[in-house]
Design a protein that fits this description.
The structure holds two protein chains of two kinds.
Chain A lengths: L1 H16 L2 E4 L8 H7 L5 E4 L3 E2 L4 E3 L4 E4 L4 E3 L7 E3 L5 E3 L2 E3 L10 E6 L5 E3 L2 E3 L3 E6 L5 E3 L2 E3 L12 E4 L5 E3 L2 E3 L5 E4 L5 E3 L2 E3 L4 E6 L5 E3 L2 E3 L4 E5 L5 E3 L2 E3 L7 E6 L5 E3 L2 E3 L3 E6 L5 E3 L2 E3 L3 E5 L7 E3 L2 E3 L3 E4 L8 E3 L2 E2 L22 H8 L10 H12 L21
Parallel strand pairs in A: 1-2, 2-5, 3-6, 4-7, 5-8, 6-9, 7-10, 8-11, 9-12, 10-13, 11-14, 12-15, 13-16, 14-17, 15-18, 16-19, 17-20, 18-21, 19-22, 20-23, 21-24, 22-25, 23-26, 24-27, 25-28, 26-29, 27-30, 28-31, 29-32, 30-33, 31-34, 32-35, 33-36, 34-37, 35-38, 36-39
Chain B lengths: L1 H12 L2 H21 L2 H30 L1 H9 L4 H31 L3 H27 L3 H29 L6 H9 L2 H13 L1 H4 L4 H9 L1 H28 L3
Helix pairs in contact in B: 1-5, 2-3, 2-5, 3-5, 3-6, 3-7, 3-9, 5-6, 5-12, 6-7, 6-9, 6-12, 9-11, 9-12, 11-12
The chains are: A mainly beta, B mainly alpha.
Chain lengths: 410, 255
């Protein structure tokens, strides 16, 4: 009992020592820097409205930094603005703008280095080279931030949210635009990316490299230079995302390169140059996705194997599937193809004749891209018809044995 | 000239074939829009009709009409009327009739079901194609004296533009696959009004596919304001060049 009382006493003393330090015009501290110097671990620094141009602020204690009325931290284009080197830091409610830019160092609006349990939420970042940069961090959260870059050339621009060698991170409900990559993951494991909106970035909306066991869902990726890229990763879950209007010579809705054992489920692909481009992908299950009015719904290179493509809906794509070889190691099953012209005698909802989604013309275009000029020509139509009856150039084995007669309710 | 155009036009508009053609277009367009449900899909099917049927009807009808009117033309040639006026009036009469057919048969259903940039492009392209094939037909009929031969030539020309040309292009592409053909392809489409019309409509319709890879080339070239201008000019050339040549030939022709 006495021990418990003592413990309570100690706790209450600890609690009391966590003080609030107010910064702002007419407050106890004029500058954030002086408050930072004075603060102890566990304290809260409350920053009131105003513009603070104090250069780089390094947080090396476990503090909470809370902005009221979005105080502006301006880096005047010559430094990194917030650098966090301690764990358990909480940053909320700032507008951080005009970071510097160096070609030798990744300068960020908020950078966290080798820390754990850091939470960054409700901030606005404007015209920063990198937005939020986490390096070697565990259990961190980046939520509800709005990162807007000013479009520059790709080589001079940084990423919106950049995670390097992190684990168990949560990136949620952020809005990212005008950066190089909206969200960038490299060596990030066991993390979750959800409800983010990444649009109008120079390169990728989301960029995954060497990141395993991650899950991203309910994100929206629109109008990015090249869509979303998932490379050199395994066990990635991609569910209920929206990929749209990723248009251009080298744009994809989703680019899968050297990725394995992943699950792509219930995503929506609309108006992309190529909705899904797969290269060196293995053991991926692609199911219940919607492909609408893309140039190519699926571009499956011959280097892909053991992938299962099932129960997807294909509507109004210029090309449903194209491939660059005759070797087929993937399975297509039970998809709905709007081009399917077969019949269903026993009325079980499954077409009685297999559907070959690769048309002769798709093969021609794959080999000679300028053949695109003949699209929808009557000649091409005749060729495709002839090829459907006697396949010669198209991979014979690439077919959906059980095509659905009606669109699948996804 | 106006008076002759009026006579030609009255003659054509009373023709059962033109009325039938208009009704056919109307039925096909309405049918396609109602069947497919989705207006974009309807437009795609309609594009095939426009690219195959309108040139065929225009070229064959114009040829037959010209031969059937040969007595009327000889009569006019005996009057103090310049020969060029006679050919131009025939051309304008036929062109106006075909345009009216398309505006009624194609324009009304498109306006009802798929009003928009793509629909408008399709109708404009259909009119351009029809008029250019009327022009080609007149050249063919001026050059051949025999009616059966003239119709044969017209059919062959249609067959060449609608089918053979694309097959030849495909053959060329395969033969010269090792060379960079992108720019040559743009020139190649300009040499066939049907291909040109198709690509112009495609730029509206299959925009996602054309956004990628070499599609970008066509888009850059034909999708911009300048490129659209280029397409219009080339199509106009396809209208004007055959008829101007036809007028020159007819002026010296021994009737």
């Amino acid at each position: 009992m006495r021990l418990l009382l003592n413990l309570l006493l100690v706790l209450s003393v600890f609690k009391l020592s966590a003080t609030n330090l107010h910064v702002g015009a007419g407050q106890a501290f004029n500058t954030i820097l002086s408050a930072l110097a004075k603060a102890q671990s566990g304290d809260t620094i409350v920053v009131h409205e105003g513009i603070y141009t104090e250069g780089n602020l390094t947080i090396n204690k476990s503090l909470s930094l809370i902005g009221i009325g979005y105080p502006i931290l301006d880096g005047q284009h010559n430094c990194e603005i917030l650098t966090v080197t301690a764990s358990d830091v909480y940053i909320k409610g700032f507008e951080i703008r005009n970071s510097g830019q160096l070609s030798t160092l990744d300068v960020a609006g908020i950078k966290v280095l080798s820390a754990s349990r850091v939470v960054i939420e409700d901030n606005r970042l404007r015209d920063c080279n990198f937005g939020i940069y986490l390096s070697d961090c565990n259990d961190c959260q980046v939520t509800r931030n709005d990162v807007q870059g000013i479009i520059k050339e790709e080589q001079n621009s940084g990423n919106g949210i950049h995670l390097w060698k992190c684990s168990r991170a949560l990136v949620a409900e952020n809005h990212l635009s005008g950066q190089r990559d909206g969200i960038y993951f490299e060596f990030v494991t066991d993390s979750e990316v959800r409800y983010n909106n990444s649009e109008q970035n120079l390169r990728y909306g989301l960029h995954f490299m060497f990141s395993h066991n991650d899950h991203y869902h309910h994100n929206r990726f629109h109008h990015n230079g090249a869509g979303v890229a998932v490379m050199y990763s395994r066990q990635v879950q991609m569910t209920e995302n929206e990929f749209g209007y990723n248009w251009g010579g080298s744009a994809y809705g989703l680019l899968l390169k050297d990725i394995s054992d992943s699950h792509i489920w219930k995503n929506n692909f609309e108006h992309n140059s190529a909705a899904v481009y797969m290269e060196g992908a293995s053991r991926i299950i692609l199911e219940q996705n919607q492909f609408r009015e893309n140039g190519w719904a699926l571009r499956v290179q011959a280097s892909c194997d053991a992938n299962v493509i099932r129960q997807n809906n294909f509507f109004g794509n210029s090309f449903d599937v194209s491939t660059n070889g005759s070797l087929v190691l993937n399975t297509f099953n039970g998809n709905y193809w709007d081009r399917y012209e077969g019949y269903d005698l026993n009325r079980d909802g499954v077409g009685d004749v297999p559907f070959r989604p690769v048309s002769l013309y798709a093969v021609v275009v794959e080999r000679m891209p300028y053949g695109l000029m003949l699209m929808r020509s009557f000649m091409v139509y005749l060729m495709d018809k002839a090829e459907k009856i006697i396949p010669s150039l198209t991979p014979e084995q690439l077919m959906d044995d059980k095509p659905a007669m009606k669109p699948l309710g996804v | 000239m106006l008076r002759i155009v009026k006579y030609v036009l009255y003659d054509i508009l009373q023709n059962r074939i033109v009325i039938g053609y208009t009704l056919f277009l109307l039925a096909v367009s309405l049918g396609l829009f109602n069947l497919s449900g989705d207006p974009t899909k309807g437009l795609v099917s309609l594009l095939n009709v426009v690219l195959i049927v309108t040139p065929l009807v225009s070229i064959v009808f114009a040829t037959i009409h010209f031969y059937n009117a040969s007595e009327f033309i000889e009569l006019l040639a005996a009057q103090p009327i310049r020969r060029s006026v006679i050919v131009w009036s025939e051309f304008i009469g036929l062109a106006v009739a075909m345009t009216l057919s398309i505006l009624v048969g194609l324009g009304i259903p498109v306006a009802l079901f798929a009003a928009g940039a793509t629909g408008l492009t399709l109708v404009i392209v259909a009119v351009g194609l029809s008029v250019s094939f009327v022009s080609i037909a007149l050249l063919a009929s001026v050059l051949t004296r025999d009616k059966a031969k003239g119709i044969g030539v017209a059919l062959l020309l249609w067959f060449y533009f609608a089918l053979l040309y694309d097959a030849l292009v495909l053959f060329l592409m395969f033969s010269f696959a090792d060379y960079p053909l992108e720019k040559a392809m743009v020139a190649v489409i300009a040499l066939n009004p049907i291909d040109l019309a198709r690509v112009v409509v495609l730029l509206q319709m299959d925009i996602s596919a054309l956004m990628g890879y070499t599609g970008a080339l066509f888009r850059e070239f034909l999708g911009t304001g300048w490129g659209a201008g280029f397409a219009v000019i080339v199509l106009l050339l396809w209208v004007l060049v055959p008829i101007v040549v036809a007028v020159r030939v007819f002026r010296r022709k021994d009737l």
